[in-house]
Write the structure tokens for this entry.
Amino acid sequence: MNENSITNESDNEKFANFVNGSDALFHYTRFTTAIESILATGKMRLSSLQNTNDPQEYKFLFFNSHAMGNVLDRIEEKINCTHTQIDRIRRLESRILCFCQNDSVSNGKKLFGYTKSRMWAQYGDNHKGICLVFSKIKLKEAFKKIISTENDCFFDSVNYQAEYRMNWDAKSFDGNQLDSMDPETYALSHLRKHYKSFFFTKNIDYKDENEYRVLVLAQKTIVDFIDINDAIKGIIVGDKCHEVYNDIINMYAKKHNCQARQLYWSNWVPYLLMLKEKT
């Protein structure tokens, strides 16, 4: 066995250990999006809730209000304005970046984030797309470099619930508190306090995605992109991705100092295979 073979074997083992571990995050996308918009630029675009495919997120929310005394009558205009401010911050100006992660199941086995066939079909262009692999630790470091305060950036797993209702405290304004604040300040404070309900809770129908999110609450300058050069660890092409693209995938893997593989299915079993280079 020559030196190159030893190096490749070591890289294979390290990459396998990483993608199967707790630091790995996975992002499915179309082939052209991965190549032209992410790998070519070294950046990923964050999304707003209004551009998601979940009506719990992309639609306007109506809130209840409670207060002691006759405060609500006096601050009716403030309440209406706060509705507008929360909608602007939550749905239009805040940004999220979505990944899936590895998951343990009840029998002790793991469901790996890069082997989710339904996600390959829906987000990965019917197995012809790409699943990008990232380090959770490195992504956090990248965001902390560009976010002004820790209170405006959150990293968390999504919680899935069967109930078709939001947490009562999250969907209710405290009129007495609002009475002493301007609507925008109250709206931002309310979203920070209940960020898990507004940004990290989805219907149980999505639970198999095992989603992990990064949230950037509205900044004076909206954060639309994040540098992923230090965070990207792998490029996995789908089972149906044609080998004619192997060279360009390997080129970008070298550019970003990460690994390139194909997820190949055989007899119900997924395998991570090296991409062959043309000779």
